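Example with several molecule types.
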Amino acid sequence: MKNQADIEKLEKIASQIRRDIVRMVHGVQSGHPGGSLGCTEYFVSLYFHIMKHDTSFNPHAEGEDLFFLSNGHISPVWYSTLARAGYFEVSELADFRKLNSRLQGHPATEENLPGIRIASGSLGQGLSVALGAAQTKKLNDDDNTVYVLMGDGEQQEGQVWEAAMYAAHHKVDNIIATIDYNGQQIDGPVEEVMSLLNLKKKWEAFGWTVVESEGNDMASLVTTFEKAKSLCGQGKPILNMMRTEMGQGVDFMVGTHKWHGIAPSDEDLSKALAQLEETLGDY
Amino acid sequence: MAKFTYTEKKDTRSGFGAGLMEAGEKNDNVVGLCADLTGSLKMGDFKKAFPERFFQIGIAEANMIGLAAGMTIGGKIPFTGTFANFSTGRVYDQIRQSIAYSGKNVKICASHAGLTLGEDGATHQILEDIGMMKMLPHMTVINPCDYNQTRAATLAIAEHEGPVYLRFGRPKWPVFIPENQKFEIGKALTLVEGSDVTLFATGHMVWLAIEAEEILAAKGIKAEVINIHTIKPLDEAAILESVQRTGCAVSAEEHQMNGGLGESIAQCLGRNKPCPLEMVAVNDSFGESGKPEELLIKYGLSKENIVEAALKAVARKQS
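Resulting structure tokens for the full complex:
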């Protein structure tokens, strides 16, 4: 566990990334702020504390931990994290979703943006991809860990469960998958659109070790990841059920699916930025 | 040029199995994934020789495609194996996003393509797969014609960087390509030289084109037979060079006319050198149960159909 000063440092980075997210989506009047704001602590804890990774970017990630984003629509938080970590210049965040940009609406490899290893956006595929990369790490005697983030609405995709079954059967125990359990999807609350019922029990029944975390509490996340890492290598894949609030950090965006995929107005932007401390300098 | 003959019949899927085994011996990075069809895909030898590099996926093709894409990160060369139907239509979006758009070095190996699957019927007889795969940017599409060519193609794609769709089939079929002929991706292979009409054929239809050439010769028509094993990238230079001399062409494939080899050739001719082109292909219908040879006749894919198409093309050229 990090000490309080370290946690506060991570929280300051998160505040800047939240500013980036709102500004990026506002700048192009397009994108997905809600899920991005909800997962900011997740990305900061991974890229600034938990993961072993090299910002000079080796596409094959030999000797490094690996991260995959399955719910690719929350690209703003990933792009900002990658830029703030040093994968590319923060000024490039201004290009988000614009013509000739490396920062595509959904993450892609075609434009060679450092940090991205596979395209995502069409849901349900990321866990399979992450498991494939985890199998290759095992074949290569590379004992680093593969991380993957999925949405909770995404759990409605059948391929997720094909992958879940595979992981337990093949004892893929070098993966820590996380579900952004915010209870919201485009058409409304997940429980109204297509109920997941007891999601934790489902994953346990599929043979995974399940840990739980508070995804908007940096200390909880760091502690959970450290526990999850200690559970790796024991013959079972690890799932982190991460409770978050969509839109966390901006009071009028919190807890509603309304801000899943719409951009803030000029007035909304001012209100949002007033709530988010500029800690590392805006791009 | 010597006439083609054969002394034995072997299935192209066994050519894949033999090629995969050799590719695995040559390169430790070759891995095999199979969705509960190890015997049908002839992947058993690879599984036995390299158990740590063989992954049983179960009946979960979407997951198999995603896993294969992920395995390339770190340098593996995954070969996925299932029937052509489940290799393409069932997993089109997974291939599109995780393999083609992401430029991943995955080899999608697909058996039991086309009508010659036989008795299992139309649910399994995919006739749209070439079209689906050739439309994807970055994808290479290969449909070899016999056991030896399938084996050689399997070895060639293992050394080729980038996504590949390799299509082969179920029935035992004449083996007529020399055993050690090197497979060059994207390079058309002239089997018989002629001057009156060019027969462009792919997959199982290549042997029928060779038989059709003999029938045409007896009628005084000199047909050139060109094996287009690589549908994408298409060897446009070879196609144009041939029709420059013959002035008309026939395409022959075990696939829908929409989206197939003939359509690619028509596009090439239309843009460069319009000339009569007849297409021997399935004309916008599903297949059905039956023996392979019965199905090829019923759906217009026999050697007689190729002869008829060639005569029509020659007549159009002269009219």
